[in-house]
Amino acid sequence: MSNSARAQQSQTTLPLLGLAARSAPGSRLVIVYHSPAALLWFVGLMLRRLGEPLRSVFRAPELRALLAKYAFDVVHDESLPAIGQRLSSEVARGTRIMRHMRIATAVRLASSLPSGGRP
Hints:
The chain has helices at 3-22, 39-49, 60-69, 80-87, 89-95, and strands at 28-34, 72-79, 101-108. It is α+β, with helices and mostly antiparallel strands. A three-stranded antiparallel sheet has the order 1-3-2. Helix 4 (80-87) packs antiparallel against helix 5. The two termini are 18 Å apart.
């Protein structure tokens, strides 16, 4: 695992650990996240200049695996343009460029975190 991958994982997993500990079984978690895309290089550059770094990028299976470590089961994961297409042709046109954005819904499972609250 590369240093940047370790940094991304640590920045992502610490908040999830606290969230999982405070979430009752059956709770729903909705996450808007970025999947890999060339556009993100430019967006990331602009955000860094504004002081808001783009820190996490996931493929759907990677996010699913990460959430599973914290007893969340992803029940739905879809790109923003696919959701926009179902809503209306206007929304579909407006979200077409956002292919890198995805929305996942996960449900907290009844199983608890391993002892010590760590995955």
